[in-house]
Structure to design on (117 residues):
């Protein structure tokens, strides 16, 4: 399905926000020993260029060795639309975990978005 023009305008910001939400969640799921403060809850929404984007809680598909894979349902709704357009976004990244202080560093981030038609 070709993404509507109004959605393509905010796609870069959308993907950045989705990546951050997904990967923050994945790191949190991997390491439950840290403090729980600062959890923003799900779903997470933001607006850009007249479109409201919603990211639903991601699911960690796998974290094997250095490779993490996750998926989330996403929605995009232009201000004047009566219904959102739904899709999924799949992410993978190479990880490095500092075993002492426990932060996870991500590199080689890849994503694939599939919008419903």
């Amino acid at each position: 399905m070709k993404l509507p023009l109004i959605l393509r305008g905010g796609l870069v910001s959308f993907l950045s926000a989705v990546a951050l939400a997904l990967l923050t969640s994945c790191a949190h799921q991997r390491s439950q020993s840290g403090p729980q403060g600062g959890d923003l809850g799900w779903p997470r929404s933001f607006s850009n260029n007249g479109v409201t984007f919603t990211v639903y809680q991601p699911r960690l598909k796998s974290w094997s060795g250095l490779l993490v894979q996750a998926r989330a349902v996403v929605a995009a709704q232009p201000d004047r639309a009566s219904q959102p357009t739904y899709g999924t976004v799949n992410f993978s990244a190479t990880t490095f975990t500092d075993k002492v202080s426990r932060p996870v560093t991500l590199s080689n981030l890849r994503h694939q978005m599939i919008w419903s038609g």
About this structure: The chain is about 20% helix and 45% strand. The domain at 5-32+39-115 is CATH 3.30.1300 (Pantoate--beta-alanine Ligase; Chain: A,domain 2). The longest helix spans residues 11-30. The two ends are 6 Å apart (CA to CA).
